[in-house]
Design brief:
The complex is a heterotrimer of chains A (293), B (289) and C (431). Chain A is mainly α and 293 residues long. Chain A has one domain: MetI-like (MetI-like fold), CATH 1.10.3720.10. In chain A, 73% of the residues lie in helices and 2% in strands. Chain A is globular, with a radius of gyration of 23 Å. Chain B has 289 residues and is mostly helical. Chain B has 2 domains: 61 residues; 209 residues, MetI-like fold (Orthogonal Bundle). Chain B contains 13 helices and no strands. In chain B, helix 4 runs parallel beside helix 7. Chain C contains 20 helices and 11 strands. The longest helix of chain C is centred in the last third of the chain and has 19 residues. In chain C, helix 2 links the parallel strand 1 and strand 2. Chain C folds into 2 domains: 165 residues, D-Maltodextrin-Binding Protein, domain 2 (3-Layer(aba) Sandwich), CATH 3.40.190.10; 201 residues, Periplasmic binding protein-like II (D-Maltodextrin-Binding Protein, domain 2, 3-Layer(aba) Sandwich). Classes of the chains: A mainly alpha (293), B mainly alpha (289), C alpha/beta (431). Chain B: This is sn-glycerol-3-phosphate transport system permease protein UgpE.
């Protein structure tokens, strides 16, 4: 806890006011509306409204499709987080190893971060469509009957790959930064002790990267949960069957396409609770790290 | 950045060659889709429609880019691409700067002052860390209508400032500022404003840069909200314009111009990341310390 | 209001419209070349008179446009005209009070609405059972069959006589694959719209009870033997690799434009891309099942129509009426039809196009009209309607995909689709 502070009483409120105002208007008000709608059954235009209590929640939670979406979400998020972080860490370490061209590699590596999800989705469709995709063709030649339109595993692979691709840059930058923050003296000491490079990576570097890794784990999980919506929407639309329908995609599909407002709102509320839990978890962790870090 | 000094991780000889191999492979995989758009933007529509696409630039580059810039693309309502790029830049800048301003102010209040309900305020803001626009679209739209902000730049910008990520990052950074600094400043008779201006702001610059990059790109790539809140072609962003041109269903699509517009939609944010990457990484290194 | 004016004055360089004109907002989902057509129609209408200004606004895909309209309606700022896709028709019809029937708007605006001047198959779909037109058909299309003449010749098929029945299509598709003329014989967009809903009308077999939902709450009958037979044939062809599945909506068109597939069933509105791709193509009418009595019956329109929102001023409605009246004029309809590939709405426009000799050079454009108006519609062929049609299509797509992936046979897929669909219908209609 900070010992020295400014004594003003009114000033902090003035400083907080804009953020609080925006948060209340654009977060709490819509969230309250979602809560309200989650206990109503309503037509799309809001012309007929009935109060149904928790019926929407019961219906959503008892729906096998929702449980399926939950399962898909867990698998999808785990895969995306694991690969996006694993590949980025691997490449960041390689980038540390090279001397010439480090800046060049890094510059090229961060491009995808700047690509809008709407564009990324279109691109992936163009590249991997089973019949005309530029990259689907070599897959076919290699004897893989690539068909994400009907094969759920292929579809999952495709959306995971697209989502991972989009996130590698961000993770890469953080890992590069994390690696550079590790004191050189520690590594040099390890080298004198005769530890092999591989050994010193796992025993010294990786533990020291833990804060970065954990931060990225939360960021990547949230990314996989929410920000991949655009990619899934463009690439598979949740199919084949429901094999790539995540929780957020289902909120969108039920509310936005099928116009079942109550169900969609109930799902939003559940999602909000999940996010708040995740956030609180992250907060506690970061708080501890600041104290000891 | 220590690009030329030897990292203790750095091997010699074969090990380094292997590292180069992995980096090249990584770069090819990661940058290929962006390259692909560029290639597609230099071919004719019929080449694009009859894949697989060639891997080298085609002969139509000048024609495609010329048409996109001079010919006024009909689908986007006769608005020039410059106008769209200008709008998008303004929105992305507005979001980035707005977010930095309000989140720095609130993080400053939370870290350097003591007042009742301080932690309650922090939590109130903090919980909003991640809430996608999709989930809150209808009520947010109503608020914008009531405030008369439909089809305006504030309407495009304000709702997207409402997230706590930047506040959190600034708070984390401010907490690493040693107490001694503040004590010394107060002994010198510095008030909150002078402390901020003379000490905190210079120290925060790299963080500001990192957050600027993140938020600029966030603002640049928005789609659903700008679509809802704009009614006139003159207010569109480049991503919306792109969507207007593409029709996967019934109508024919000028794919060559779509690809040119995609390149233009990708290029500015890439430039921002690339030009600011040094600051960006430095900012992160300092936050992560 | 004051702030708004300030912002606009300060930040936006808006072209100023003349003071006395009434502005009419028209939200639409037309992208690509069709978006240009929308802009041209609005510009021409605005130039044709000085009282009203129609202002078209692109609002994304069909679902995005509908949602933007709903959000705006709930915020009290609904547009005057909104374009809603065919599957949203049920939703709009249920929203009494939110919309104003087009027939009413036209009559109040001083224009006579004469049903007989319109193409019955199209207008019927957007009317009440009593025949009052609720929305104005803007872009209507109907599925047709496209085939690649080069591939046909290569496979030893008659490129001037495309197959007429599904059985013939299957034979031709197998021949294309076996002869090596192409790697895929047949593909299709929209299995729901083309192989389920249009299949019902074209083969005069019910899609659901209550006149396919037009007369009341429907109960799906898509698991009847004719569908089972048809889908089992599709599944078998998929297994042989003769039929290639392209996706839930229009994606399969690319399998055809890339020259991979020899035959494609797709909306008549999809012609543009096929022309652009430079394929030597031919168009035939949608195949039918020769074992179905009465087939071919007639096809039904897909596409979208323009709805007028409720609660606007009389002046606005007068403007909307004037605009719709302008839209139905023969030269406008003829232009729209020839430019966009969508069907004309009025008989007069059809006759005028025919007289101009357009169909001699573009016979493909007449195929969907002939299909749609060849016979007076029966109870099975007026179209399908359900308040939750998008959801029903989702369910069908999921079951069809499982079937095509070889996880279940056609009978199971259709039974599941019908049962799950009927449960969803009960939920949607509140019983």
């Amino acid at each position: 806890m900070r010992r020295t502070v400014f004594p003003h009483k009114l000033l902090p409120w003035l400083l907080l006011a804009p953020q609080l105002a925006i948060t209340l208007i654009f977060f709490y008000w819509p969230a309250a509306q979602a809560f309200r709608q989650s206990v109503l059954r309503e037509d799309a235009f809001g012309l007929k409204t009935t109060f149904v209590g928790l019926a929407n929640f019961r219906k959503v939670l008892g729906d096998p499709a929702y449980l399926n979406a939950l399962q898909v979400t867990v698998i999808f998020s785990a895969l995306v987080a694991f690969f996006a972080m694993g590949i980025a860490l691997f490449l960041a370490v390689q980038a540390e190893k090279v001397i010439r061209g480090k800046g060049f590699y890094r510059t090229l590596m961060i491009w995808p971060y700047a690509v809008a999800p709407a564009i990324a989705g279109m691109l992936w469709l163009f590249m991997f469509n089973p019949s005309f995709g530029t990259l689907a063709w070599p897959l076919r030649q290699m004897g893989i009957s690539w068909n994400p339109l009907l094969n759920s595993n292929h579809a999952m692979t495709l959306v995971v790959a697209a989502s991972v691709w989009k996130q590698i840059s961000y993770n890469f930058l953080f890992f590069v930064a994390g690696l550079q923050a590790i004191p050189r003296s520690l590594l040099e000491a390890a080298a004198i002790d005769g530890a092999t490079r591989r050994h010193s990576f796992w025993t010294i570097v990786f533990p020291l990267l833990a804060p970065t890794t954990f931060f990225l784990l939360v960021v990547n999980t949230v990314y996989a949960l929410f920000d991949t919506f655009g990619i899934i929407h463009a690439v598979t639309s949740g199919g084949p069957g429901k094999s790539t329908e995540t929780l957020v995609y289902k909120v969108y599909n039920d509310g936005f396409v099928n116009l079942i407002m109550g169900d969609s709102a109930a799902q939003s509320v559940i999602l909000m609770l999940i996010v708040i839990a995740l956030t609180a978890f992250q907060f506690r962790f970061i708080e501890r790290r600041v104290h000891y870090g | 950045m220590a690009d030329t000094t030897d990292s203790p991780l750095a091997p010699r000889g074969a090990g380094r060659a292997i590292a180069h191999f992995w980096m090249i492979l990584g770069v090819i995989i990661v940058a290929f889709p962006v390259y692909y758009v560029f290639i597609a933007s230099t071919h004719s529509t019929s080449t694009i429609l009859r894949p697989p696409l060639p891997l080298l630039p085609g002969p139509e580059a000048a024609a495609n880019y010329g048409e996109a810039f001079s010919g006024r693309i009909g689908q986007i309502g006769g608005v020039s691409l410059w106008r769209l790029l200008g709008n998008t830049t303004l929105v992305a800048m507005g979001i980035a700067i707005g977010k930095i301003a309000i989140s720095m102010a609130s993080a400053y209040a939370i870290v350097f002052f003591r007042f009742p309900l301080r932690m309650a305020c922090f939590w109130l803001i903090f919980i909003t860390l991640m809430l996608p626009v999709e989930v809150r679209i209808q009520p947010t739209y109503k608020v914008m209508v009531d405030l008369g902000l439909i089809d305006t730049y504030p309407g495009l910008i304000l709702p997207l400032i409402a997230s706590a990520t930047a506040t959190l990052l600034f708070r984390q950074f401010f907490m690493t500022i040693p107490d001694e600094l503040l004590e010394a400043a107060r002994v010198d008779g510095a008030g909150p404003w002078r402390f901020f201006k003379d000490i905190l702001w210079p120290l925060s610059l790299t963080n500001v840069a990192a957050i600027f990059v993140i938020q600029f790109i966030y603002g640049w790539t928005q789609y659903l909200w700008p679509l809802l809140v704009t009614n006139s072609n003159e207010m569109n962003t480049i991503v919306i314009a792109l969507k207007k041109m593409v029709s996967f269903t019934d109508a024919e699509t000028p794919w060559n111009l779509v690809m040119v517009t995609s390149v233009l939609a990708i290029l500015p944010p890439i430039l921002v990341v690339v030009l600011m990457q040094r600051w960006f990484v430095k900012g992160l290194v300092e936050t992560e310390k | 209001m004051k702030t708004q004016a300030l912002w606009i004055a300060g930040l936006v360089a808006m072209p100023f419209a003349a003071q006395a004109q009434t502005e009419i907002s028209w939200w639409h989902a037309m992208s690509g070349a069709n978006g240009e057509v929308v802009n041209k129609i609005a510009t021409d209408f605005n130039a044709s008179q000085s009282e009203y200004v129609v202002k078209p606004v692109f609002k994304g895909t069909y679902p995005e446009t509908l949602n933007a309209g709903i959000a705006a309606f709930r915020a009290g700022q609904a547009p005057d005209i909104i374009q809603v896709f065919d599957v949203g028709t049920g939703v709009m019809m249920a929203a009494q009070g939110a919309v104003k029937p087009v027939a009413e708007v036209l009559e109040e605006g001083g224009f006579k609405f004469d049903k007989s001047q319109y193409l019955a198959g199209i207008v019927g779909y957007y009317s009440t059972p009593e025949g009052d037109m609720l929305s104005f058909p803007y872009n209507s299309s109907s599925p047709v069959m496209y085939y690649n003449k080069d591939i046909f010749t290569k496979a030893g098929l008659d490129a001037e006589n495309p197959p007429k029945t599904w059985a013939d299509v299957w034979t031709a598709a197998r021949k294309i694959k076996e002869s090596g003329a192409a790697t895929c014989g047949y593909t299709s967009t929209w299995l729901t719209w083309i192989h389920t809903e249009t299949f019902a009308a074209w083969n005069d077999t019910p899609w659901a009870t209550n006149e396919n939902g037009l007369a009341g709450q429907p109960e799906l009958e898509i698991d009847s033997p004719l569908y089972v037979k048809h889908f089992q044939e599709l599944a078998d062809l998929a297994k042989e690799g003769v039929f290639v599945y392209g996706g839930r909506t229009s994606e399969a068109k690319q399998n055809f434009t890339s020259g991979e597939c020899g035959i494609l069933t797709e909306s008549s509105g999809g012609l543009g891309d096929i022309v652009k791709a430079g394929i030597n193509y031919g168009i035939g009418q949608l195949p039918y099942d020769e074992t179905a009595p009465g087939a071919p019956q007639n096809t039904t329109p897909g596409g979208a129509s323009l709805w007028v929102m409720g609660g606007k001023s009389d002046e606005t409605y007068k403007g909307v009426a004037a605009f719709f009246n302008y839209l139905s004029q023969t030269p406008v309809q003829q232009h729209l039809h020839e430019q966009s590939g969508y069907l004309p709405v009025t008989m007069a426009a059809y006759e005028a196009t025919k007289a101009s000799g357009f169909y001699q050079t573009n016979p493909a454009r007449e195929v969907p009209i002939l299909q749609m108006s060849g016979k007076p519609p029966t109870a099975n062929s007026k179209g399908v309607r359900a308040a939750n049609l998008p959801q029903l299509r989702d369910i069908q797509n999921e079951e069809y995909e499982k079937m095509l992936a070889g996880q279940q046979d056609a009978a199971t897929a259709l039974k599941n689709a019908a049962e799950r669909g009927n449960a969803a219908i009960k939920e949607a209609y509140g019983n």
